[in-house]
Structure to design on (250 residues):
């Protein structure tokens, strides 16, 4: 039903928005949203399971306050937030107190804990230049080497532009006679769309529309006709919407 509605639409953006919204609605109905702990909570070893539950409950109280805008909900949230903050701070204090307790750990273990906490043993690679040769002259002092490098990179742009001719050329002499019928874009077929979707990698992240490649593979036969219609509309209308120009780069 949604595919037929998209095909009947001759305006590009309404067709895209309709197909996207219907897919997301079905996705939210079929697949439940799960809350995963963030990387920040993973690195904080003093955050126990009970504290995570408290943090989740605090967030739910905050959402409720934003929804109702009631004063009593605001008071409950702020009081619970204060208590939750005190519990987290105490858990952090107790964790580091036990980690650096000199009564239960040896000096060697204390240093290991210190290095693992503050990353004091990270390997730092430093490249040093012993000498620099410029115009058959050798420089060994660090100050002279820095000066020669600065002089070289400072004059890179000027040296490159000095070798470019300043003579102006008329670009029209490179252009041939215009031919309005010199280019033709074949319409996107359903078989072509199926072939492209089948080549998607399942482990790739979804784009701005949050529709994963694996999901597109599962429903490819159902959306191939609406997608073919949407991809061919820019050819017939001469307009490419902004949403088709956006990419999510990671």
């Amino acid at each position: 039903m949604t595919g037929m509605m998209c095909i009947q639409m001759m305006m590009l953006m309404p067709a895209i928005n309709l197909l996207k919204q219907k897919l997301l609605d079905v996705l939210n109905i079929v697949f439940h949203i799960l809350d995963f702990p963030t990387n920040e909570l993973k690195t904080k070893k003093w955050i126990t399971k009970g504290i995570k539950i408290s943090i989740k409950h605090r967030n739910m109280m905050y959402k409720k306050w934003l929804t109702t805008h009631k004063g009593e909900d605001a008071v409950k949230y702020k009081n619970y937030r204060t208590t939750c903050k005190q519990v987290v701070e105490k858990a952090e204090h107790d964790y580091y107190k036990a980690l650096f307790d000199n009564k239960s750990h040896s000096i060697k273990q204390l240093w290991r804990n210190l290095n693992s906490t503050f990353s004091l043993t990270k390997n730092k690679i430093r490249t040093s230049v012993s000498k620099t040769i410029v115009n058959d002259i050798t420089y060994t002092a660090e100050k002279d080497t820095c000066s020669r490098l600065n002089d070289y990179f400072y004059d890179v742009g000027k040296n490159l532009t000095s070798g470019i001719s300043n003579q102006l050329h008329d670009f029209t002499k490179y252009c041939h006679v215009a031919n309005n019928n010199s280019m033709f874009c074949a319409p996107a077929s359903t078989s072509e769309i199926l072939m492209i979707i089948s080549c998607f990698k399942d482990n790739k992240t979804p784009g701005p529309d949050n529709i994963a490649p694996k999901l597109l593979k599962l429903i490819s036969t159902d959306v191939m006709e609406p997608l073919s219609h949407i991809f061919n509309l820019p050819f017939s209308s001469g307009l490419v919407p902004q949403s088709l120009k956006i990419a999510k780069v990671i």
User: Anything to note?
Assistant: Residues 127-163 form one domain.
